[in-house]
Amino acid sequence: MSIVEMPPFKVTSGQTNARVQVNLIIENTGFGRVVNNEVRDFAIVLKGEGTERDITNNCPDIVSGRIKLYGKEQERSIRCSLVLPFSETAVSYIVEAEMGYTYYIDTNPLAVRVKGGTGTSSTTVITYRQPASLQNEPIGDWWDDIVDICVDKWGLRDPYFIAAIVKKESWFDASAFNAGEKQAWEAYQSGQTTVKPWHEEYYGKGLMQITGPWIAGVPRPSTFEWQYNMPPEAIQTQAPVMTDAYNGRQNLDRGCWYMKALLNHYGNDQYKAATAYRFGWQGTDAGSFDPYDNNYVNDVFRYKSEYLQNVGYTENQFPSRP
Question: Do the beta carbons of residue 273 and residue 266 sit within 8 Å?
């Protein structure tokens, strides 16, 4: 694979320690055309602030470093969602990608485009202000981790939504567990019942109460009948390793991997994703639940609204529905 280093791009912000959602689009330049559903290796490395990181897995069109380009002589774009830190001065980033491609930058929310090289933007930069504890929940213990893992790593653009999910699931208690599910598993293990609970030993645990062998499996999710138990957007090989569901960062990592799959499945409709997170995606797809009016989502989006109001943001800046 021939890797080229593309020209640096810059985005500036007058705010200190700001972050902005950036969509990096890798474009076919013409001589990168492919024929007959060719499969190519692909790598994207982001360099900046003296660091270097591989962002290949931030691109939903790339699976384990490989991309399939469809159609005879069909041009294809690759979209990567990442969150970049900025200081008061411009920070340069360099992209490496396969020869034959260029890139442009879309910055959310104003979609200012920087074509194929250098440029600056002073568009609206969203900083993720930490909400106050509104009902004595210890949100401050985990806010930076939510931004670091769920926003920066998994590209979930709304940490206030994730915080609301965590508040509903565990009240930000990393040691929380579902007592009923635990009791059911222990009853089966001790022989008090012959009915094996569906979640097996993976009863709800931790910050996001991840449950079941396909979501909470250790060290990786179970592959048994994957296609029947998980939405097609959930890629098992992309699930992060988890050795301890009570480890808050590991729990957020696995939980936000799954939430990203649900949001992709429902076109970024947080109401449907939250309903599926609580009641299951199969039932949500089948219409068994009203995703816009059930006890779970009513609580989640009340919490989210309270957090946004507390930090001075509006629903328009962090929309719950597409």
Answer: yes
Helices (H), the chain: 143-145, 159-170, 179-189, 213-216, 226-229, 248-265, 270-279, 281-285, 295-311
Q: What is the pLDDT of residues 234-248, one digit of tens each?
A: 999 999 999 999 999
Q: How many residues does this entry show for the chain?
A: 322
Residues 149 and 260 in one domain: yes
Amino acid identity of residue 165, one-letter, is: I
Question: Is 50 exceeded by the pLDDT of residue 94?
Answer: no
The per-residue pLDDT for range 280-321, each reduced to its tens digit, is 999 999 999 999 999 999 999 999 999 999 988 888 888 999
Find, among 124, 58, 120, 66, the residue nearest to 93 by Cα. 120
Indicate if 50 and 82 belong to the same structural domain: yes
Beta bridge partners of 102: 27
Taking Cα atoms as reference points, which of 166, 203, 160 lies closest to residue 315?
160
Of the residues 115, 130, 159, the one at which a domain ends: 115
Beta strands in the chain, from DSSP E residues, in sequence order: 3-5, 9-11, 18-28, 39-41, 45-48, 51-54, 66-68, 77-86, 91-98, 101-107, 113-115
If one counts every other C-beta atom within 10 angstroms of the C-beta of residue 257, the result is 23
Residue whose C-alpha is closest to residue 162's, from 296, 255, 83? 255
Burial label for 240, CB within 10 Å (0-12, 13-18, 19+), is middle
Residues 231 and 297 in one domain: yes
Exposure string (b/e) for 26-38, b if CB count within 10 Å is 16 or more? bbbeeebbbeeee
Is residue 221 within 8 A of residue 215, CB to CB? The reply is: yes
Q: Is the pLDDT of residue 38 over 80?
A: no
CATH number at residue 8: 2.60.120
- My answer on whether 146 and 37 are in the same domain is no
**What total number of domains does the chain contain?**
2
